[in-house]
């Protein structure tokens, strides 16, 4: 069985955690992978902690990322880093809001997309598939802002890695 | 790589939640009517069914929803009824007798269980209902199976003229997995009434033979299940055999890829010969299931030697690490997950003012189910009980009857608008019929929506599931029609002290009082204005013609 890539996105209700996992799962689906996405809804709208799991690879069984096995942990809110760190595997990649400069973003609401941009630099899916998902996943008038935020996150990560 | 290439060219692949997959299959299988009451994790099924062009409606509660769909199925139609696990408690009265009457069309009852209680007051295992009522049960493990099993459920329902329990859990409902739908939708069967008094009128004389017919049907279904393709074996090493169902199957495949697995999809009545044969063919046989020891008890009662999980794994949901522990028989304490940030009442929520007032008066608060249950958390800690939908009325009245007067006078029942319509109305009738000596105060927190489950409509909003205008139950008129003199409608504002004064006045009156604290939920204020504008455009319109069906 080939490797499954495990991503957890964490934050607070209203930050676009689940929207972020929607986009990631859609990109992985477009790339031809088997994909599973799991989320706990219900009380999330009341500002509580929210996490969404996305797993993709040739064949995925459980929809939930096992604790300590996340290859990537994306956290949208600084206070939520520590409570979710146990999900990350040893040597896994933590992406926090520090990955992007907030002042560069078109607006704060695009932080989730900017962090997806940062994540995208580590994943095999091509840039145009990400942009296609962003175009279809939101209302048309949000696309330019989301594209800008995505590219800021993506380029920042690439520059940091080199 | 070839497999991936095939997938890429397969434009028919959709990433659907289990709820969406059920809805899509319902549409494709010609379900003529879907009814239910919102409840996590089942809510999205009817919403998606409506979006896909199906006839979907919210009922005031699950009992009514099941009765409506029983009626539809008596008429020969295919019907779908959806609810969360605790909803089936409410609907259990019609459930048990519908098993006797059977149906003419198809009736699929979705019970969405919530092991681990992501958003519920208990983690009851509704597989027990299939046994208790005597209806067949299917359990899918992912969205593709949720889709495929719906067709099987319709077939079983029509073949044996029985309701079918379609049992899913949070991780099946709310996980998105790849689905390849069948290409063509089936047209709904034409409904037509055929009189069958002895089958449908459950007076004792007709119910006695009906019970015998039910047991006969179950025996036939059990025999059919022995070779049913909804159950399958995943080949593997015979040193370990695992019998499993539902989401646990996925965790098992990941935690024990080498094991031989009997995956059960049709889980009542169980295919015991097949299970016995599987157990016989492996060296060690383990039953791996989430929640109650339902499978393991049934299998053992049949004289088959299998091992179950330790009691500690009965609590909460299973995942891959927990399944690994079960396989290793590791009973060491499990690491506690670091606490996340709990949810809270929105900053501008009107309920804050109400809970502050209740706290100030040191009220004893019989609470209910909804957003406002968050009033139990800091800084308010202003709820003293929460049992089930509608319980605030009865519990509050019971307290009033027995407590010494100085305590009884501080008892208040607090309930939301949707919950009140669901099952608070009979409690209000009780309040009028058996009034406590010092009266009682009911506060209806009316935010014009079913907020906690994601803002669904209900009979008190005067809008259908599709947000179109329809008949409206006016809560204050209803209360007054029962003869309650003190019925107040107030929009609570902070800083005015107006709500506090009204509460004190009602508590001190020693009479029956209903306070309706009304302000629309701030999270949907914008949508509500749009709906209201639509209502103004067509003042007398009941629900119009349903929108043209969207072809999916």
Kindly describe this structure.
Chain A is α/β, with parallel strands linked by helices and 162 residues long. Chain A has a single domain (5-161), classed as Pyruvate-ferredoxin Oxidoreductase, domain 3 (3-Layer(aba) Sandwich). Chain A has helices at residues 17-30, 81-84, 111-120, 127-137, 143-161, and strands spanning 5-12, 34-39, 49-57, 70-75, 88-95. The longest helix of chain A is centred in the C-terminal third of the chain and has 19 residues, at 143-161. Chain A is globular, with a radius of gyration of 14 Å. The N and C termini of chain A lie far apart (32 Å). The model of chain A has no long low-confidence stretch (mean pLDDT 91). Chain B has 552 residues and is α/β, with parallel strands linked by helices. Chain B has 3 domains: 13-182 and 200-225, Thiamin diphosphate (ThDP)-binding fold, Pyr/PP domains (Rossmann fold); 232-328, Rossmann fold (3-Layer(aba) Sandwich); 351-537, Thiamin diphosphate (ThDP)-binding fold, Pyr/PP domains (Rossmann fold). Chain B is built from 22 helices and 18 strands. The longest helix of chain B has 22 residues, at 204-225. The interface between A and B is large, with 42 and 45 residues. Strand 2 of chain A pairs antiparallel with strand 8 of chain B, so a sheet runs across the interface.
Secondary structure elements and pairings:
The complex is a heterodimer of chains A (162) and B (552).
Chain A: E1 5-12, H1 17-30, E2 34-39, E3 49-57, E4 70-75, H2 81-84, E5 88-95, H3 111-120, H4 127-137, H5 143-161
Parallel strand pairs in A: 1-4, 4-5
Antiparallel strand pairs in A: 1-3, 2-3
Chain B: H1 2-9, E1 14-17, H2 18-28, E2 33-36, H3 44-51, E3 56-58, H4 62-74, E4 78-84, H5 85-90, H6 92-101, E5 106-113, H7 127-133, E6 137-138, H8 143-160, E7 163-169, H9 170-173, E8 175-179, H10 197-200, H11 204-225, E9 232-234, E10 237-245, H12 248-255, E11 259-264, E12 266-268, H13 272-281, E13 284-288, H14 294-301, H15 320-328, H16 351-360, E14 364-366, H17 391-402, H18 405-408, E15 411-416, H19 417-433, E16 440-446, H20 475-481, E17 486-490, H21 498-509, E18 512-518, H22 525-537
Parallel strand pairs in B: 2-3, 2-4, 4-5, 5-7, 6-7, 10-11, 10-13, 14-15, 15-16, 16-18, 17-18
Antiparallel strand pairs in B: 1-8, 6-12, 9-11
Helix pairs in contact in B: 2-3, 2-8, 4-6, 12-15, 17-19
């Amino acid at each position: 069985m080939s490797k499954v890539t495990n991503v957890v996105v964490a934050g607070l209700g209203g930050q676009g955690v689940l929207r972020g996992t929607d986009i990631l799962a859609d990109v992985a689906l477009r790339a031809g992978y088997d994909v599973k996405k799991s989320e706990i809804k219900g009380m999330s709208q009341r500002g509580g902690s929210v996490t969404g799991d996305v797993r993709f690879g040739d064949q995925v069984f459980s929809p939930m990322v096992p604790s300590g096995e996340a290859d990537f942990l994306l956290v949208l809110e600084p206070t939520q880093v520590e409570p979710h760190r146990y999900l990350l595997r040893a040597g896994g990649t933590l992406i926090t809001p520090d990955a992007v400069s907030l002042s560069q973003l078109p607006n704060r609401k695009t932080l989730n997309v900017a962090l997806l941009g940062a994540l995208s630099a580590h994943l095999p899916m091509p840039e145009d598939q990400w942009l296609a998902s962003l175009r279809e996943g939101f209302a048309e008038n949000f696309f330019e802002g989301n594209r800008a935020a995505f590219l800021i996150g993506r380029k920042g990560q690439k520059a940091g890695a080199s | 790589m070839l497999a991936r290439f095939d997938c890429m060219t397969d434009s028919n692949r959709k990433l659907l939640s289990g709820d969406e997959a059920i809805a899509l299959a319902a549409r494709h299988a010609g379900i003529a009517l879907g009814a239910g009451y919102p409840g996590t994790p089942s809510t999205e099924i009817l919403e998606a069914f409506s979006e896909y062009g199906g006839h979907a409606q919210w009922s005031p509660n699950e009992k009514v929803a099941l009765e409506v769909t029983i009626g539809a199925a008596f008429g020969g139609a295919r019907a779908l009824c959806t609810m969360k696990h605790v909803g089936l408690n409410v609907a259990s009265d019609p459930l048990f007798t519908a098993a006797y009457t059977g149906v003419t069309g198809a009736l699929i009852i979705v019970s969405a269980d919530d092991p681990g209680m992501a958003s519920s007051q208990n983690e009851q295992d509704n597989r027990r209902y299939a046994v208790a009522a005597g209806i067949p049960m299917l359990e899918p493990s992912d969205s593709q199976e949720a889709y495929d099993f719906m067709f099987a459920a319709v077939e079983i329902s029509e073949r044996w003229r029985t309701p079918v329990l379609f049992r899913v859990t949070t991780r099946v409902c709310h996980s998105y997995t790849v689905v390849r739908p069948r290409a063509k939708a089936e047209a709904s069967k034409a409904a037509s009434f055929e009189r069958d008094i002895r089958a449908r009128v459950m007076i004792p004389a007709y119910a006695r033979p009906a019970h015998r017919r039910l047991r006969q049907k179950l025996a036939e279904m059990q025999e059919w299940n022995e070779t049913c393709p909804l159950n399958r074996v995943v080949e593997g090493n015979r040193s370990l055999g695992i019998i499993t169902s539902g989401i646990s199957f996925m965790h098992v495949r990941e935690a024990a890829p080498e094991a031989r697995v009997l995956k059960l999809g049709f889980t009542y009545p169980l295919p015991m010969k097949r299970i016995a044969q599987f157990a016989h063919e492996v060296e060690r046989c383990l039953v791996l299931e989430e929640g109650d020891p339902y499978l393991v008890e049934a299998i053992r009662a049949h004289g088959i030697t299998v091992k179950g999980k330790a009691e500690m794994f009965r609590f909460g949901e299973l995942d891959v690490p927990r399944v690994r522990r079960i396989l290793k028989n590791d009973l060491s304490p499990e690491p506690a997950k670091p606490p996340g940030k709990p949810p809270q009442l929105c900053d501008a929520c009107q309920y804050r003012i109400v809970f502050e007032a209740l706290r100030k008066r040191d009220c004893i608060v019989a609470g209910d189910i909804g957003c406002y249950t968050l009033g139990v958390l800091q800084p308010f800690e202003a709820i003293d009980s929460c049992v089930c939908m509608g319980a605030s009325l009865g519990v509050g009245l019971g307290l009033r009857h027995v407590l010494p007067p100085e305590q009884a006078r501080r008892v208040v029942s607090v309930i939301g608008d949707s919950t009140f319509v669901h099952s608070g109305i009979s409690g209000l009738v009780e309040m009028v019929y058996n009034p406590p000596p010092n009266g009682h105060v009911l506060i209806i927190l009316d935010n014009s929506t079913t907020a906690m489950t994601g803002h669904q409509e209900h009979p008190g909003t005067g809008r259908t599931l599709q947000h179109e205008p329809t008949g409206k139950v006016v809560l204050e008129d209803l209360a007054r029609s029962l003869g309650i003199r003190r019925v107040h409608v107030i929009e609570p504002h902070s800083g005015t002290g107006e709500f506090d004064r009204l509460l004190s006045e009602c508590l001190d009156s020693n009479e029956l009082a209903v306070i309706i604290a009304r302000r629309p939920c701030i999270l949907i204020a914008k949508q509500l204005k749009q709906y209201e504008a639509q209502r103004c455009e067509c003042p007398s319109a009941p629900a119009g013609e349903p929108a043209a069906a969207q072809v999916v």
